[in-house]
Amino acid sequence: MKRREFLKFSTASCMALAAMELGGGKAFFRPAKAMASGELPGSLGAKEVYSVCEMCFWRCPIVAKVKGGKLVKIEGNPKSPANGKRVCARGNSGVQLLYDPDRVKYPMKRTGARGEGKWARISWDEALDEVAYNMKKVRKKYGPHALAYFDHGASAEFMRGLFMHMGTENYSNEPAFFQCVGPVAEAFISSMGYLVSGTRQYTDMGHAKAILLVGSHIGENVHVSHVREYIQGLANGAKLVVVDPRFSAPANKADVWLPIRPGTDTALLLAWINYVIQHKLYDKDFVANHCEGFEAVKEGVKDYTLEWAARICDLKVADMEAAIRMLAKAAPNVTIHPGRHSTWYGRGDVQRHRALAILNGLLGAVAVPGGLYLPTPVKTGKSECPECEAEVEEPDTSLKDDFPYAGNFPGNPTAKIIEATLTGEPYPIKLWGVNGVNILQTIPNPYDTMEAIKKLDFIFTESMMADEAAMWADIVLPGATYLERYDSLHTYDGITPYLAVRQPAVEPLFESKSSYWIARELAKRLGVDCYPCEHEVEYIEEELKGAGLTLEKLNRMGGIVSYKANPYRSRKELKLPTESGKVNLAVAHYEDDDFDPVPKFEPTPAPPKGYARLIYGRVPVHTFSRTMNNLWLHNEWPENHAWVNDEVAAKLGIADGDTIVLENQDGKRSLEVKAKVTPGIRPDAIYLPHGFGSRSKRLTRAYGKGASDQFLITHYENCPFTGASSHRTSFVRIVKGGKALDIPELRPLPREIPRFKKSA
Ligand code: SF4
């Protein structure tokens, strides 16, 4: 497809993903204008509820349309500066989450073996009494750190406060930090002084003259405002450089696509940094006045030439040179995208993102249109209806001790919680609470996770769907979906700052309850002085006071209040939130912890002979494993395909569409999956879209569809800075007709890169 055609297509289709551009309403609970009297199909005549989407973590403001007490449609809130009337396919499909017949409907107690998913219905009182009894018992017998909480998202926040109040250091904000943004968060905080990740990317792609994406798949991972900004930038003529071993959706539109050898991105970035310095392409004024450590960087990267990187990365010098010149020419209005999911290889992950931060600094792409911009905080009040006060007592040996920068972020490394549960060292962990996350489809080596669960005295989940994690629970608590509950205020401090509130479109279905109600009832049973407000609305009203609002006023205003953004600074007034107020090109304090102030290239081991590296990504209509059972989304994309290089496939006798199985270096096999034979992936990698291959029989649509990458990731390493777990350190070969087929090595491996050693 030609680029111009793509842009036309993508404005329609990315948002086809998106694009439910039907009229939204202006008032809370106001009937929309009906065009005819009587009952009509669709959303005409529906009452409109302003809320915030939670089909992914991006939190787009929405309008939920309710008719006859039923949710009939979800649209973007037209007043939202971020997404307007648009929602993506998943946002639209919240309707099917609400009415999914496979939802957890009642509190349940396990009747079979753990993992079997055999339960009996019990009352809320019985369920909460049992959870509270076990929490108290475990805490009394083993101490507070024997309690662990795996959590994600707004629904999990109240109960996280409760676990912290019980004194444990083991809560984990699990998939968001330790399986995702940990390394990039650390790299940019140390370099720029603020967190550039998660839903706060602070990348001004809409005004960029050039964009660099390293392993970021915008358009395959869809977050409406992010995709809008990206498309706006491309439509305005921004050049696009994409570094990816796979011909991804953005590679498809790139001016330069660099199909890099997996594991060598830092080599490319360091060679580019050296090139920019040697060819004096850097922003001299910005570096002299707003950067620290230029000379150390110049010295540290001087041996990393493009010729060296070409061999390591398996790229052409001319292509690398064209790309960096394209980016430098656009400076300072260039987006050197920090990326988000950064838990790739463990060792070296922070330094890869440090290299991206250095490029940002050298090109002066900070606090300017098109570059990284500065947040505009939205002021809200502190609730007088207090949350649980954290009462965490540091244990003699903390699970964070090996990771000097883990302490800058909430909770403990997930991998260490699992390890301690398995070994009892440095202290026993005997009870897990799980909320808002499918721990078996997000944490590497689910086999270890299952073994750890077997060692627990007790495990409970708060779940909307009976996913794999719920299958292992002793007690399952039915959590209300985002369409049935309130959550804390949502403020967005990005390029379009605003404030919105998640509020229920319908009453909780079945016996599901809001996360606030569950946390509060549990707190009462634990004798803990938490959450004195009777209802979460009181809590929200207090927060709104600080913004000069009430819920009623906010709803009268259309559910959104927007604020003036302040993203850019003149060079004279620029002061970053680092100690010096400048970009740390070299991070001096890393030396105190034996880390390099200037990144070095540390090769990650290449696949063992006969294997390819397993890489993964997303499809635009699913949010990880969370949406696989959703009727509309399942119909759009019911299963994944394993991408296999066409030359590799020809040598192995595999045709496009063949049914195969993937086997990893530890002999673990996937469920059956169809091969997608394509020249669009390197011969030393196999790609699987993430989240498929459900093993929960209670998810009747998703069960057994496609292959799970997570169940093949059995080898991982921890990031030495943060303790986050690596996800791209497992390798696979292909099994066809029951026969294991070795992957032929079609690209020579340079001697500097060691091979991964399989255990005997
Ligand atoms: S990007 Fe889509 S799923 Fe995510 S919050 Fe926005 S509308 Fe919802």
Automatic annotation (TrEMBL):
The organism's superkingdom is given as Bacteria
Residue span(s) of domain 4Fe-4S Mo/W bis-MGD-type: 46-102
Query: Which Gene Ontology molecular function entries are recorded, alphabetically?
Result: 4 iron, 4 sulfur cluster binding; metal ion binding; molybdopterin cofactor binding; oxidoreductase activity
Record-linked CDD domains: MopB_CT_Thiosulfate-R-like
**Which Pfam families does the record associate with it?**
Molybdop_Fe4S4, Molybdopterin, Molydop_binding
The answer, when asked if Ubl conjugation is one of the entry's keywords, is: no
Print the keywords alphabetically.
4Fe-4S, Iron, Iron-sulfur, Metal-binding, Molybdenum, Oxidoreductase, Signal
InterPro entries with a match to the protein in the record: Asp_de-COase-like_dom_sf, MoPterin_dinucl-bd_dom, Mopterin_OxRdtase, Mopterin_OxRdtase_4Fe-4S_dom, Prok_Mopterin_Oxidored
Annotated family: Belongs to the prokaryotic molybdopterin-containing oxidoreductase family.
The record's section on PANTHER family has:
TETRATHIONATE REDUCTASE SUBUNIT A, TRIMETHYLAMINE-N-OXIDE REDUCTASE
Name listed for the protein in its UniProt record:
Molybdopterin-dependent oxidoreductase
